[in-house]
């Protein structure tokens, strides 16, 4: 088979890393609209970091036809952007005293089992978890809680039934979780998967670059063959 000067490239839409990064972007846009002040710098930074993850995967895939080096660089930028976003979600939870769920937390295990592929899947999981808490008698609207404590509810936030001091039994995993806690932990779970996939993608790209070289090496090989 004759080697092509510009090999087949692109096809980023079929990459699992791109699909996960795009889902993270969709989740982040909605999350920031509901739970982060739109005038804050954090709002813009989180949305832009999520967007950067998606766009750089696509750009790197498209650039791979003529530059493996550029593909590596842009994929690395995508990975760094998603790492920045992961820290933003962790900061959001920590600064508000909200829990970052352990991998074995029942709610998080149910989320992973869903294998969410689109935003509606994530939204449905959040709704089901809130309903589950409601059925266990852990219900009260967030608006009522805020007003009862003299706190103004966040504009655009979703009414949620939470009574922070209650729990079913004594296990931390049975304590009620607010919508922002559920959404942030869902985003973190998706980010963990996206970052893992990008780490593997970067390793494969680096190995391919070492084995085959880039456009310059490919051009030299083809010109040598033509001359001979």
Short description:
The chain is mainly alpha-helical and 228 residues long. It has helices spanning 16-35, 41-63, 68-95, 106-114, 119-135, 142-148, 179-212, 215-227.
Description:
Helices cover 66% and strands 0% of the residues. The chain is mainly alpha-helical and 228 residues long. 30% of the residues are buried.
Share of β-strand residues:
under 5%
Topology, number of strands: 0
Sheet having the most strands = none
Structural class: mainly alpha
Q: What is the mean predicted local confidence, pLDDT? A: 81
Low-confidence stretches: 139-170
**Amount of helix:** 55-70%
Seen as an oligomer or otherwise, the chain set is single chain
Rg is 22 Å
The helix tally amounts to: 8
Order of helices and strands: HHHHHHHH
Backbone shape: elongated
Termini separation: 17 Å
Question: What attributes characterize this protein structure?
Answer:
single chain; mainly alpha; 228 residues; 66% helix
Task: List strands and helices in order, with pairings.
Elements: H1 16-35, H2 41-63, H3 68-95, H4 106-114, H5 119-135, H6 142-148, H7 179-212, H8 215-227
Helix pairs in contact: 1-2, 1-7, 2-3, 3-7, 4-5, 4-7, 5-7
């Amino acid at each position: 088979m004759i080697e092509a000067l510009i090999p087949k490239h692109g096809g980023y839409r079929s990459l699992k890393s791109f699909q996960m990064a795009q889902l993270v972007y969709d989740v982040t846009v909605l999350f920031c609209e509901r739970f982060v002040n739109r005038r804050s710098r954090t709002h813009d930074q989180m949305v832009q970091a999520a967007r950067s993850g998606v766009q750089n995967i696509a750009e790197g895939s498209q650039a791979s036809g003529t530059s493996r080096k550029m593909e590596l660089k842009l994929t690395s930028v995508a990975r760094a952007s998603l790492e920045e976003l992961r820290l933003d979600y962790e900061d959001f939870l920590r600064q508000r005293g909200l829990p970052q769920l352990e991998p074995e937390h029942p709610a998080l295990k149910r989320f992973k089992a869903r294998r969410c592929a689109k935003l509606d899947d994530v939204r449905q999981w959040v709704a089901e978890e809130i309903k589950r808490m409601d059925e266990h008698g852990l219900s009260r609207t967030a608006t009522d809680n805020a007003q009862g404590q003299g706190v103004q509810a966040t504009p655009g936030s979703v009414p949620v039934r939470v009574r922070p001091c209650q729990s079913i039994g004594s296990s931390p995993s049975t304590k009620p979780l607010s919508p922002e806690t559920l959404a942030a932990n869902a985003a973190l779970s998706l980010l963990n998967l996206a970052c893992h996939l990008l780490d593997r993608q970067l390793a494969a790209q680096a190995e391919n670059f070492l084995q085959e070289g880039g456009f310059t090496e490919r051009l030299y090989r083809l010109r040598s063959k033509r001359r001979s």
